[in-house]
Amino acid sequence: MAGIKRHIRRESKVEEYLRHRIRAIGGRALKWVSPGFPGVPDRICFFPPFKIGCQGLIIFVEVKKEGKDVSPDQARVLTMLHDYFGHNCNVISTKEEVDNLIRVYEEAKNELHRKDTSNTGHKVEDTKDSISG
């Protein structure tokens, strides 16, 4: 029984880390529970928009114990969300994978800012200040 408690604690620690890391960049990682529809991912992660006027990013995340596979129900739901609805889905097992998810988001955001700056000569923040001021 002690091994099971340790497993649950580790998986929940990764899930908690995911929640805190996404919140730190202005997003939210909401727990998804769907009675009567087994296999939904653990979290729906809402990332803030890259810039004003753009939509944010939604990624569905299933947190698993390292080395464990998703269940058949989870595989079915993740496939449906990705292939049919076109959403990003990730299975994450470690804090390093959480960090990588955040890093990819930040790199994409920074690349967009670089493109905006090179196209207009202004920083996105300059535009933001002029809109709010």
Account of the protein in words:
The protein is α+β, with helices and mostly antiparallel strands and about 130 residues long. The protein has one domain (about 1-130): 3-Layer(aba) Sandwich (Trna Endonuclease, Chain: A, domain 1), CATH 3.40.1350. Helix content is about 55%, strand content about 15%. It is built from 4 helices and 4 strands, in the order αβββαβαα. The chain has helices spanning about 1-25, 70-85, 95-120, 125-130; strands at about 30, 45, 55-65, 90. The protein has a 4-stranded mixed sheet with strand order 1-2-3-4, sandwiched between helices. Strand 3 (about 55-65), helix 2 and strand 4 (about 90) form a beta-alpha-beta unit. Helix 1 runs parallel beside helix 3. About 15% of the residues are buried.
